[in-house]
Design a protein that fits this description.
With 105 residues, this protein is α+β, with helices and mostly antiparallel strands. The protein has one domain. 35% of the residues lie in helices and 14% in strands. The protein is built from four helices and three strands, in the order ααββαβα. The protein has helices spanning 18-31, 38-42, 76-81, 93-104; strands at residues 60-65, 70-75, 90-92. A three-stranded antiparallel β-sheet has the order 1-2-3. It is elongated. It starts with 17 loop residues before the first helix and ends with a helix. It binds zinc ion. Zinc ion is lined by residues 53, 55-56, 58, 75, 77-78, 86, 88-89.
């Protein structure tokens, strides 16, 4: 540290707005994989980690058909345990995404 008399302080405007700074800090916290599982943060699917099966409450996860041409949200309990776990629900991904986005709009 230099001697006090050699220091000249110059007031400068903050590089970013305080509200934006706070919003960014909050986003960083939410996106932190230590706070939220990475599959939820970085998953390419809009509703993964949010959408749950109406029958059993299990997570609805990506399921594909016809070599990935068709994408569904399907009950993960049924996928793991079969009919005994859950009768199962599946819905085309684009259809459910559209319904939810339209509702939010
Ligand atoms: Zn289910």
């Amino acid at each position: 540290m230099k001697p006090e008399e050699e220091i000249i302080s110059v007031p400068a405007p903050p590089p970013i707005d305080l509200e934006i700074f706070k919003a960014v800090q909050n986003r960083l916290k939410v996106n932190n994989p230590k706070m939220t599982p990475p599959r939820v943060v970085s998953g390419p699917n809009l509703l993964t980690g949010i959408c749950h099966c109406g029958n059993c409450g299990g997570a609805m996860t990506l399921s594909t058909g016809k070599n990935g041409r068709y994408r569904y949200y399907a009950c993960s309990i049924r996928a793991r345990q079969g009919d005994t776990g859950c009768k199962g629900r599946a819905i085309p991904m684009d259809k459910l995404d559209r319904v939810v986005v339209t509702h939010i709009k």
